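Much of our argument rests on the idea that a fold can be written as discrete symbols. The record that follows shows the chain in one-letter code together with its fold in token form.
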Amino acid sequence: MTTTEQPTLDGTIPAPAATPARRQSEDYETWVAEVWPHFIAAAATGRTFTCYEVVDANRLPDPPNPQAHWGRLMTLLRDEGYTRTAGWATSDRPTVHHSGVRTWKGTAAARREAAA
């Protein structure tokens, strides 16, 4: 047997669990335009959040370069005054094994933007 799956009691090998495929945007500007309103809405709630919580809740696409662009987005939101750093937490993202991530909290500017 060359598979690492455990056979069921009737001897059949179960099909591998399907993981939901994530979309990936082709260009940075289009991606920012799509995800920006979701992060403004999350910031407007006033609760503390991680980047992945917003992505997962809204099923947002990955950027062209996920390793760099997620952090850049959060920096832009902070620089524009919509978010501020709130601390650290462990990530819920399944692929990072609960590593530490920054948490964010919305500002009054985010609440005004969402109300407009």
Summary: Helices lie at 28-44, 51-58, 66-79, 108-115. The radius of gyration is 18 Å.
